[in-house]
Amino acid sequence: MFYPEELVEEIRLKNDIVDIIGSYVKLQKKGGSYMGLCPFHNEKSPSFSVSSSKQMYHCFGCGVGGNVFTFIMEYENYTFVETLKYLADRAGINLPEAQYSEEAKKQAGLKARLLEINKEAAKYFYYQLKSRRGQAAYDYLKKREISEETIKQFGLGYSNKTGDDLYQYLKHLGYEDSILRESGLISFDETRKVYDKFWNRVMYPIMDVNNRVIGFGGRVLGDGMPKYLNSPETKLFDKSRNLYGLNFARISRKPNMIICEGYMDVIALHQADFTNAVASLGTAFTGLQANLLKRYTKEVLLTYDSDEAGIKAALRAIPILKEAGLTAKVVDMKPYKDPDEFIKALGAEEFKKRMDTAGNVFLFEVEVLEREYDLNDPEQKTRFFNEIAKKMLVFTEEIERNIYIEAVASKYRIGFDNLKKLVNRYGAQLVVGQNDQPKERITQGQKQKNKSEDGMKQSQKILLTWLIEDTGIFDKIKDIIGPGDFTENLYRQVAEILFCQYETEHAVTPAKIINRFESKEEQNEAASLFNMTIRGEMSDLERRKALEETIMRIKKNSLDVQSKKAIENNDIQALQNIIREQADLQKLHISFHDG
């Protein structure tokens, strides 16, 4: 869909990137930018930077970056048009009717057809459950005490034992192999040809918050493996960004959300009127899911299985929830394994009591840690208290830390002052360790990636960043260097737009440049070009010298590249001009230095 560039820019300007990203990610002001934990990969130290002045974001850890449009598209898995409509609505801007471009038609059409296919598949699975062939699956659900109403609400179904009946059904509806290949429902294999992804399984449609079927989970009947199978990643489905049952839980009007492990736990809880239950989709709980929950609640109750795997899952989820700014508590379900078993054995009223007395997550972590030590052994007991003291450092506020020290000291009879001294000792060591870390002067703010960047690429990035931070540089370098001297293709494209912006508007808007690129990879790389940072103070002389060296290095490299091309093409005239420019480099160097 085509919208005028002026309208797109108006929408971008009326949606401040710090406000938008701040509603998803906990941000903290640091210098001229805001820092937070990247929502696109798991990390413990913030490397996700959001710039108010540039109206851009960049993660120095995983490399993602872009403007406000890019963020919403990446986070919400929206198309550009969907993102534009979302941000326009937020800003109170009415979008006019517009014509579809061919690419927009293709993308919107693909997503719409995939949603249609999923909807048809869900209907088909539901029909099969109610048919004679689905009797075993229906009996399984009845044995699990799932009511007819709940089966209908969650759209539960059954995939037949035959290998390709869903494929044949969808083909009968007119869907071609190319679109079915992208649905994740059909597998294409050279040896077995075509077969259904799910067969002989109880089916659980996975819906987004708008009640659209975006994927499926399937529980095998019998002893087949794997026991549970989810849809693969598709244009619609990303398991790290969705939660099973959230389409119902988000409108439950409950004061919190319950996180559990499996589909049946969610279904059993909803059936018992705990309509605020959700589950992660066969993967470890992620920061994206925590930020998704944050839109609907401030408190989360963890009801992971009480076995070892469930305890580990809870321990992994706790810091992720905390970093997202959510309060978390742990529900004790002993002696039962999960919410489904608990409710069947003791009933909903008893489960509500357990929810009301849910335990503090830090004290839960301490209890789990205690199991690793024999507290009757003085040496192991000492190590236990040392580990607790280290864990206490997560509390940055002294009052909060003292409260927890008091609670732990009272429970284990160690004495408040003794434990506090131990905590303070580890705190002091941490500060010293941080102060001893070497500081770089010019850096990307990230540890070296597996493959270090080429030096010339880095120089070109530095110059592009300096150009947007100090537009006065344009006038100083206009007779020395231009867009054509940026030898990397994408860098040159960005430089051309940047130089054109300055020439026509006498100002630069880096966030506007991102919209010129279609692929996520190009948008990420374009954003990284404006995020070279300088650590430490530089005097005017040092800064000028560094800038001068960077410019001359780029110019020399550009002339070297041009010279090779001229030789290859046997272009004598071009070669003579290049030789003259190379000879003039020293003069340009002095002229720039004096200027």
Describe the structure.
By secondary structure, the chain is an alpha+beta fold. The chain folds into five domains: 87 residues, DNA Primase, Chain A (Alpha-Beta Complex); 133 residues, Alpha-Beta Complex (DNA primase DNAg catalytic core, N-terminal domain), CATH 3.90.980.10; 120 residues, Dna Topoisomerase Vi A Subunit, Chain: A, domain 2 (3-Layer(aba) Sandwich); 64 residues, no CATH class; 140 residues, DNAb Helicase, Chain A, CATH 1.10.860. 52% of the residues lie in helices and 11% in strands. It has 26 helices and 18 strands. The strands form five sheets. A five-stranded antiparallel β-sheet has the order 1-2-3-4-5. It has a five-stranded mixed β-sheet with strand order 13-12-14-15-16, sandwiched between helices. Strands 6-9-10-11 form a four-stranded antiparallel β-sheet. A hairpin with a 5-residue loop joins β9 and β10. α5 crosses α9. The longest helix is centred in the first third of the chain and has 29 residues. The protein is globular, with a radius of gyration of 29 Å. 35% of the residues are buried. About 4% of the residues have low confidence.
